[in-house]
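Chain X:
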Amino acid sequence: MSPANGALPAPEFSRIVPADAVRRADVTETIEATETERKALAERLELESIGSLTATVKLRAVRGGQMIRVSGQLEADVVQTCVVTLEPVPAHVSESFDALFAPPSMIEDQGLEVDFDPSLSDEDIPEPMENNRIDIGELTAQHLSLGLDPYPHAEGVEFEDYREHEGEETAEEEVAAEPEKPNPFAVLQQLKSRN
């Protein structure tokens, strides 16, 4: 069944914090994914499994309470798939992250007129809040994705071994494919002996 009105499906790991609560006082939350959430998130991130996923997230109002600064630290135990042997590869992911959130109206107003400033980091470019709320669970999931090894490999398996082996075969095939050329000095020697 497709979502109504073209809305995106709910995130697998969702923990909502109202921006108004953060404007009243700084908020610190420790969140942990349930088994069901970890299973759904593992499917989304193409992992064999997620054994645990926790994060400590701090939120504080900045710029006169207009924006919310979020900083967090996540810890996760995951099992990826070796890109060479397809064996399970257990890994621990530890990532810290920062983000800035603002009401969509502030971002939309600036969007057309703001020139790209290369000195700004990702943490300084605000993300829009939805309905004055911040989903710190989804933010954690996104940063877990960024913290994963893009080319996981089983212990003892090195990519270089395969490249070197392939390179040797290619070099041998090239040598075998080339016909032997006559030695140019042998030709000169034949000409000299005729005279």
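Chain Y:
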Amino acid sequence: MRNRICSLDDNALEELLSQRDAYEPEAVDIAVQEAIDRQLIQSKDELRGARFTEKRHPKSLFPYLHREKQFQKVFGSLVRSLYLVALIPLIFGALKMVEMQQQQGLGMLGLGLLWIGLSIRMQKRKDARIPLLLMVIFVTGLMQFLLSRPEHLNWQLTDFLVLGIAALLVIYGLVYLRVLLARRQGKQ
């Protein structure tokens, strides 16, 4: 542990000290001694200053991300999940085209392509309005699916339960993307 902490660069060491509550006391003691040896701080008392005090946010359904690297990783994961969601209308659209139901098939293919296009735009521009638009598209598509579900499918309670959980996960992801982007725009 000592070697790993001592091999950190100055910025990483200062970051560790600012988040020292998340580390074992032994690791913090090693980091403090290393910071003193490097003359980043004069004594442990300096850790009480604003420089080493991490902003505390209340617990939230949508966790705060303090560092840009955290934001990029979580944002990237959420956007990749949106691409996976787009596969659903694309696959069903292709199946409808095979079944010679061109109007429904083209509609679903168009919806999937629109979803992908908006996801790409959001990824590039980091626009907080796009998750809201995706939410409207998602809820509209879900309602249309539920209202026009084929009679030959014998829907059971578990089918609705699985669909509901999947829909809630997509909605949570979209809302979290909106919150992340809104927080980020507030910082800039």
